[in-house]
Amino acid sequence: MSQFWSAIVHDITPYVPGEQPKLTNLIKLNTNENPYGPSLRALEAMRQEVANSIRLYPDPASDQLREAIAHYHGLKMEQVFVGNGSDEVLAHVFQALLKHDAPLLFPDITYSFYPVYCKLYGINYETVALDDNFEMRVDDYLRPNGGIIFPNPNAPTGCLLALSEIERLLDANTQSVVVIDEAYVDFGGESAASLVDRYPQLLVVHTLSKSRSLAGLRVGYALGNTDLIQALTRVKDSFNSYPLGRVAQAGATAAMQDQAHFENTCRKVMQSRKKLVKELNGFGFKVLPSAANFIFTSHPEHDAATLSASLRERNIVVRHFTKPERISQFLRITVGTDVQCAMLVSALREILG
């Protein structure tokens, strides 16, 4: 450890992203990327931006993109905040809205960036245990808090909390912000964006990395009451007044406007997920109900780490979480194309004998 590090750097344990292997002929099912390409309209918009305008600074407010996002969700542009991927948006959320005297609440099994941000920004937090089926219980969150955050569908489990339960939580929790991280909601869930106008304490976070197939572009956004959006903007403008480049704004705007491509991509992923779950159930796997572009699964007779290693030997990479212990026997598998899923099934048939 360097003598020049600050105390906070010594103390934090950084988030570890999914591996990006440098292998050839790889079936990459470990980081929940969309197996289908982005909108052709988005690609063309980015080409035009590179050719004509890349020498110019981008719009610091990303007005065109925010307008497209607002139109898609039936909101006003002033209710939209954008940033470099949903992780940066979440970082601003933790700074601007979730640092209070009372503890922040989130599930014990969830997106592992949350405790990292809490440590980085000095936020007190408490984890709330999922039930035996790895599902959230709203009643467990009905207590004093400095904010509530959770993915919906949850990650890495893929389990979905019904919109009616979210409304029940919001009706009971009116004195702190409730942040719903909807990175995967387009693959089978119902967005809480429809509740933004009714609940001033609600903030909904989205990404274009999953359902819009733009993980490499790094674009995320938040939807909420204008008061919440102003708080995020104040933090953003104190950190980086030009968060999104011209190419990112152009591509993301076009992607938000190409509804047909978006719906077709999501439909294909959901169809593949259904077939993959059926195949895995036939092998004796336990698969949690998923509303995401991945599944969370375990086999009662086979060690998860061994299965992951055996798949890797066959150039198939999935995600294995060793912590917490409660999920150490589960694998998170991204839903690929039908061809990729078939190759996964074939490999597992061979491994399981």
Describe this structure in words.
The chain has 353 residues and is of the alpha/beta class. The chain folds into two domains: 17-37 and 260-352, Aspartate Aminotransferase, domain 1; 40-257, Type I PLP-dependent aspartate aminotransferase-like (Major domain) (Aspartate Aminotransferase, domain 2, 3-Layer(aba) Sandwich). It is 38% helix and 14% strand. The protein is built from eleven helices and twelve strands. The strands form two sheets. A seven-stranded mixed β-sheet has the order 2-8-7-6-5-3-4, with helices on both faces. Helix 3 runs parallel beside helix 8 and helix 4 packs across helix 5. The longest helix is centred in the C-terminal third of the chain and has 24 residues, at 259-282. The radius of gyration is 20 Å and the shape is globular. The N and C termini lie far apart (47 Å).
Task: Give a quick rundown of the structure.
The chain is α/β, with parallel strands linked by helices and 353 residues long. The chain has helices spanning 7-11, 40-52, 63-73, 85-97, 113-121, 163-172, 226-237, 246-257, 259-282, 304-313, 338-352; strands spanning 27-29, 80-83, 104-107, 125-128, 147-151, 178-181, 202-207, 220-224, 286-287, 294-298, 316-320, 331-334.
